What we know:
The chain is mainly α. It has two domains: 1-36, no CATH class; 38-112. The chain is built from six helices and no strands.
Amino acid sequence: MQGGLIVLGSIHTEMVALLEDRTAPLYNRVTGTINLTHLDIGSILSILKDHAEPSPQHLLFLWSLFEGVPKFYRDCYEQNVLAADRKTILRRIFFESSSPLRTEAENWVLRELRGR
């Protein structure tokens, strides 16, 4: 039986530690890797065509916030704001108590320093 594991963004650092640290239980058990890059402009434009009005201004606004990080576009989709105006996107994604990216910067720093 074959299996597989796909790791997305926010748990990447922890998985690297688990698989590459010589003292970790899963050290040296990786049999293959797939390097996934960020989304390109064409991919984001395709997402917008499916879920919003793909105006150049809206595309540039989203790119300036998220570049090509797939997780952030998924967060926008899940918050139903891909087609929203700038103010709504910012409020729903970053500033409300239930916003998915409200603590992203803080958590990223802690993950990179491994809680130290």
